[in-house]
Amino acid sequence: MQPTKELQPLLSVYDLKVRFGSKQVVHGVSFDLHAGEKLALVGESGSGKTITALSLLRLAGDAHISGQALLNGRNLLSLPEREMRAVRGGDVAMIFQEPMTALNPLMSVGTQVAEVLQLKQALSKQQAFQQAVELLATTGIPDPARRALSYPHQLSGGQRQRAMIAMALASSPQLLLADEPTTALDVTLRMQILELLSDLQRQTGMAILLITHDLHLVRRFADRAAVMEQGVLVEQGPVGALFEHPKHAYTHKLLHSQPVREVREVHSQAKPVVQATQLRVSYPVPLPGIQGWFRKGEFVAVQGADVCVRQGQTLGIVGESGSGKSTLAQAILGLLPSQGELQISGKRWQQPALRNTPANQALRREVQVVFQDPFSSLSPRMTIEEIVGEGLRVHAPDISEAGRHEQVLSVLLSVGLSEQQFPGLLQRYPHEFSGGQRQRLAIARALILRPKILVLDEPTSALDVTIQKQVLELLQRLQRELDLSYVLITHDMDVIRAMAHEVMVMKNGEVVEQGAVEAVLNQPLHSYTQQLVRAML
């Protein structure tokens, strides 16, 4: 529903400034939002988009906020705190980025939704819970009466986000602030949540302010977009015009930050470095009742996977959470026991794979891993020299301190980090670097042992689009120079198109389709692959 020009805006933000101490983080932001409109606030990490949204509800901690934020003519920035408490969760509701941390783990989701209804609508406990079940049903949660009794950890990621939406809608808000509401979800779940929000917005007439860095999402969801860079709103306008004719250089940069395919074709005689036939990975699970006293059941996480990765080749593995792609990667890394045939550079993991035998330790030099989140995967208590050089201490203890020092400097230089850029580089700690720089450190740590294979587990999903492009270009260059093989786990089809030679699609532990990346993505045969590809168009 598009607003007409004659209508007064539901929300008018004028000259909004936010300061923490002496540091100004939002510089005079102004925009209007009409009832029934979807406005996307776009920018990279640190652009000020989330602080802008939080400031509207005066939830930005000790920040000093000035300017105006008029909601139906009332300035939210000058209302008494008692009136603001009525606005929060009443006229204005918010959906947070990570539902697992936003929901109370000690309360059922139905109780949490009912709590809002009791507080905002003065309903009885029984009435509030019944209405909470109806709200959960509105968001598409199956069997809502039963799910209302579930705790957050008992729901899937998509169901938790739907519960958050139900909680936000409990007081029939006029304005919904959605802070990266789909970042933690699989690609198909993202589209479902977007469609749900669009349907609810049409039914209720509420306005939505979407905070995101995902340009695919903006194109498919928003009516208008406002672009922020370093606390400044640099450009805003209708989504179609903004995407087709960006006026500001930063908007142009964001729109042209899609990954570019620059991979070398694999030589026809290249040897396989990862080979698996009918690979099977299972976990023991308790059985219900008395039979669980005597034996364990079995959950099969990967069933009958055939894998072949040749030297210098990238195999992309795609699928939703629970599809088995990460389990398959852990088996390749020798971190999980497996059945079937699995060879790394022609050698088998000695089972159980978790045993650190001399043979297994030698194989671990061949295959290394780069994790999804570069901040949590690097020890905050170790210096950069200790982090990057740790593999050498374990696998090459005979190297002298000076020799190890030189190798650390060399591998850091190969990933684009030098003492000239960062004086005292080796004695710094991970928190002193940006997200993209930390991922370069993680790649350097993996490369120090000169492996043949890198397992890349969502290596760019935690990064902004411009940084993502830089990291992918680095990985492409390293593959060309070092003839590396990659096993790339991702849900991002743009990353697969840019990086992979072959692609494997997994669902519920089984490989449903695999082949050359152009064939699988351009002419998918399986309905699930078609669904994934459609979700990214």
Describe the overall structure.
There is one protein chain. The chain is built from 20 helices and 20 strands. The protein is an alpha/beta fold and 537 residues long. Helices cover 36% and strands 25% of the residues. The protein folds into four domains: 175 residues, P-loop containing nucleotide triphosphate hydrolases (Rossmann fold); 79 residues, no CATH class; 180 residues, 3-Layer(aba) Sandwich (Rossmann fold), CATH 3.40.50; 68 residues, no CATH class. Helix 15 packs across helix 16. It is globular, with a radius of gyration of 26 Å. Strands 6-7-8-3-9-10 form a six-stranded mixed beta sheet, with helices on both faces.
Count of extended strands:
20
**What is the assigned CATH homologous superfamily of the largest domain?**
P-loop containing nucleotide triphosphate hydrolases
Which spans of ≥5 residues are poorly predicted at pLDDT below 50? none
Number of domains: 4
Protein structure class: alpha/beta
> Do you know the CATH topology of the largest domain?
Rossmann fold
Mean pLDDT: 89
| Number of helices, where a helix is a run of at least 4 consecutive DSSP H or I residues | 20
The level 1 CATH classification of the largest domain is Alpha Beta
Between the first and last Cα atoms, what is the distance in angstroms?
23 Å
Which second-level CATH architecture of the largest domain applies?
Answer: 3-Layer(aba) Sandwich
Main pleated-sheet profile: 6 strands, mixed
